[in-house]
């Protein structure tokens, strides 16, 4: 049988993207398996979901500075990941900029989902930024993580229309549905060894 790619997911909140990835990985033909969920926040809904699914969890205190992480927490996550032979780290609503050892060692093997069509509307509240700007289409992007904020090479994007009567909630819900398709698809492509980073571009091998 072919080797399954070992995945760790990092989350801070509700965990619906974690769930989408973990459920896809339960499919016997899926080339990846979620070995570990790491949260920075003991109240994260993702924790409960992982427990229900029988997935190992860890809570890592990333320090008091919002959006940032301490060097010690990065070391700790790196240790947790390497001890489990993690090959891919997925940020799924992890609301801190990853830096330090974890990024140094996993760059090129760490991906993130962002609720906007990058390079537009980086950072927080991508959906609100898109609405406020008045774009007619938005969506989501899965990209490799680099030291910047939502700046790494883009793996795939899915587009949704913005309706005249949308508010942040309705647009976010439409985008989230696409996130739940895009993220497992990106994990699958990575696990199949089909992604090549070439400068800013990601080549998808054998794309039909
Ligand atoms: C998702 O919409 C994700 O794209 C976004 O947080 C939400 C997490 O939801 N991430 C960011 O905004 C990162 N900049 P979830 O916890 O249900 O997966």
Structural notes for this entry:
The model has no long low-confidence stretch (mean pLDDT 97). The chain has helices at 16-26, 45-53, 71-83, 101-106, 126-133, 168-191, and strands at 5-11, 32-39, 56-59, 88-91, 110-114, 137-144, 154-161, 195-198, 201-204. A 7-stranded mixed sheet has the order 3-2-1-4-5-6-7, with helices on both faces. Strand 4, helix 4 (101-106) and strand 5 (110-114) form a beta-alpha-beta unit. It has 208 residues and is an alpha/beta fold. The chain folds into 2 domains: 1-106, Rossmann fold (3-Layer(aba) Sandwich); 112-208, Formyl transferase, N-terminal domain (Rossmann fold), CATH 3.40.50. It starts with a strand and ends with a strand. Residues 11, 13-17, 92-93, 113-115, 126, 176, 179 line the site of glycinamide ribonucleotide (GAR).
